[in-house]
Design goal:
With about 220 residues, this protein is mostly helical. It has one domain.
């Protein structure tokens, strides 16, 4: 059995690597933000393949950093109560959509990101479906395991509130946006709160996936 000192050193090492990885993602995201994304990017196959590649790398990095303690560090377990997790998730989802409505009065986070299509184009439905899977399934899994799974577990020893705030803000910054940062950080904090309340990364994955799916469906249904 490893000593407490050994476990502490192991935690410090993992946290240092995680912090360096997240810092690199944030730096690259803001450096790349100067370039406008192509129009209707989610109707392109290149976006689907690049998203698949990026999130596969993120998952690989998360698994490598958590190696030896993957299940515990990533909180890959069922919540004690699915009913309670569902109630908290619903409340957070409604709160985030309400905040989004307020933010859109003053800013235009959707336009800044440039990902959401303006209307439905059935001639490119196959590419959109591929991107839908990436955005509404793969991205939530990879990002939740990175932030609310590994990140929250590594930061938890500094206090629950600190872990919630740090992973939430880091999640927002990792998207490389300015106008959307308040909403993204709030969403990240909400997901971290859900992770803390349910002791599981699974409810945040589901909520994140549902939020992204609703946003994409709404964008092509208006």
């Amino acid at each position: 059995m490893p000593s407490a000192e050994g476990a502490h050193a192991d935690g410090n090492g993992r946290l240092a690597i995680w912090s360096a990885l997240v810092g690199t993602i944030i730096a690259i995201s803001y450096l790349g933000a100067a370039e406008d994304p192509p129009e209707d990017v989610l109707y392109t196959w290149s976006a689907a393949f690049s998203g698949l590649f990026y999130y596969a790398l993120v998952l690989a990095a998360v698994l490598l950093i958590s190696r030896g303690r993957t299940a515990s560090l990533l909180a890959l377990r069922a919540p004690p109560s699915w009913a309670r997790a569902a109630v908290i998730s619903l409340g957070l989802l409604l709160a985030i959509f309400a905040l989004n409505g307020v933010v859109e009065i003053f800013l235009d986070p959707g336009e800044e990101q440039g990902l959401v299509p303006e209307d439905w184009d059935p001639s490119r439905a196959d590419a959109f479906a591929a991107n839908f899977v990436v955005v509404a399934l793969l991205a939530p899994i990879a990002e939740e395991l990175m932030f609310r799974g590994l990140g929250f577990s590594l930061l938890r020893r500094f206090g629950r509130i600190a872990a919630i705030l740090v992973v939430g803000i880091a999640f927002g910054l990792a998207h490389g946006l300015v106008e959307a940062l308040p909403l993204l950080a709030a969403f990240g904090i909400a997901l971290a709160y859900l992770r803390s309340e349910t002791a599981s990364v699974i409810p945040p994955i589901i909520l994140h996936s549902l939020f992204n799916a609703i946003a994409l469906i709404a964008s092509v249904s208006s």
